[in-house]
UniProtKB/TrEMBL annotation:
InterPro entries: DNA/RNA_pol_sf (IPR043502), RT_dom (IPR000477). Pfam families: RVT_1. This is Reverse transcriptase domain-containing protein. It comes from Didymodactylos carnosus. Residues 109-298 form the Reverse transcriptase domain.
Length: 298
C-alpha cells in the first residue's frame, strides 16, 4: 500500500467547542471541515472576465487514447503510491494482459462522450496533522487518495494538455513549477541575476514573496474552464474536463471508520492531472517556483 501517512487523533473539538472522543464523530467533524473549505460560496463568474486574456490560435478539441499507450502507462505505475480502496497499482500491473484492451475501450468512450465515471469522482481523505493545537480540526491537512483506475485517463489527459501547451508556447517563461527540465534552481538563478544586475545599475529593488493559503482548495472551476478555453482547449476535450470537475465528493477515513460523502464544488485534487491547471492560473503573477502556492514577484 506504499507509504503510511496516518495521524492518530485521540480527541477533537466539535463545532460547539466540545471535546469528542468517538471516532465516528471525529471523522464526521473533519470531513465537514474539509468539504466546507472546498465549497464555493461566491457569485457566478461572469465569462467576460476572460476577455482581457490572449486567445490561442492552436486548438485541442479531443483527447486520444491507444492501446500501446495505456499498456505503457500501466507498466509505469508506481507500486509505492497509495490508492483509494479497493484496487491498487499492484493489482493493475498484475492484470495488464487481461484489462488493457477493455480499459482502453472504456477510456475511449469516456473521451468521446466527454464523461468521467461518477463512481470515480469520490476522494478518500486521510487527515494529516500539520501543526498547532491537535484539538482543532483546522490544523489537519486532507491527503486525498485517488482511485487507481482514474489515474489512467488523468495521465493521458495530462500528457496531451502539456504537449499542447509546450508546443504552442502557452506557458509563461517565468514559470518554474511542473515544467520539464525546469525547477527552483533556475528560478533562483533568474532572481539572483536580475537583482545583481539592478544593483550594479544603482537601482532600487522591491520584492514580494507571496504564499497562497489553501491554494489547491480555492481554485474556482468556472475560472479554470475559461482559462483553458483561452488556451485553446475546446470541444470534447473541454467538456471532458468540465465533467471531471463536476459532482465531486469526499469521505474522510480514521481508525477504520469512514464518514458520509460530502460534495466539493471548488479546488483541485492534489496528485491529479489538475495540478497543471493550478499553475496556469498563477502564471501572470511573477516567478513561480516548484510549489504552486509560492510566488516571487520583483
Amino acid at each position: 500500500m506504499g507509504r503510511r501517512r496516518y495521524t492518530t487523533i485521540p480527541v477533537l473539538n466539535n463545532n460547539n467547542n466540545v471535546i469528542v472522543t468517538a471516532t465516528q464523530e471525529k471523522v464526521e467533524i473533519l470531513n465537514e471541515f474539509f468539504a466546507e473549505v472546498c465549497t464555493w460560496h461566491g457569485p457566478t463568474v461572469d465569462p467576460k472576465i476572460a476577455d482581457s486574456l490572449s486567445s490561442s490560435s492552436a486548438f485541442l478539441h479531443e483527447f486520444k487514447v491507444e492501446l500501446p499507450g495505456v499498456e505503457k502507462l500501466l507498466r509505469r505505475l508506481d507500486l509505492s503510491h497509495t490508492c483509494a480502496p479497493s484496487i491498487t497499482n499492484r493489482m493493475l500491473k498484475n492484470m495488464i494482459p487481461s484489462i488493457v484492451q477493455p480499459l482502453t475501450k472504456l477510456v475511449y468512450e469516456s473521451f468521446q462522450t466527454s464523461t468521467f465515471p461518477l463512481r470515480r469522482k469520490n476522494g478518500i481523505v486521510n487527515p494529516l496533522y500539520k501543526n498547532g493545537d491537535k484539538l482543532e480540526r483546522s490544523n489537519y491537512r486532507p491527503i486525498t487518495l485517488l482511485q487507481a483506475f482514474s489515474k489512467v485517463p488523468e495521465r493521458l489527459v495530462h500528457k496531451q494538455l502539456y504537449t499542447h501547451f509546450i508546443k504552442n508556447k502557452l506557458l509563461s517563461v517565468s514559470q518554474s513549477g511542473f515544467a520539464a527540465k525546469d525547477g527552483p534552481i533556475n528560478l533562483l538563478l533568474e532572481v539572483v541575476h536580475k537583482n545583481n544586475s539592478d544593483i550594479k545599475k544603482d537601482k532600487f529593488i522591491r520584492a514580494a514573496s507571496l504564499d497562497f493559503q489553501k491554494a489547491f482548495d480555492n481554485v474556482n472551476h468556472e475560472c479554470l474552464i475559461l482559462k483553458l478555453y483561452k488556451k485553446g482547449i475546446r470541444g470534447k476535450a473541454l467538456k471532458w474536463i468540465e465533467d471531471y470537475l463536476a459532482n465531486r465528493s469526499i469521505q474522510t477515513v480514521l481508525d477504520g471508520h469512514i464518514s458520509r460523502k460530502r460534495p466539493v464544488t471548488k479546488g483541485v485534487l492534489q496528485g491529479s492531472v489538475l495540478l497543471l491547471f493550478l499553475v496556469i492560473g498563477f502564471e501572470q503573477l511573477g516567478y513561480l517556483n516548484l510549489k504552486t502556492d509560492d510566488i516571487w514577484c520583483t
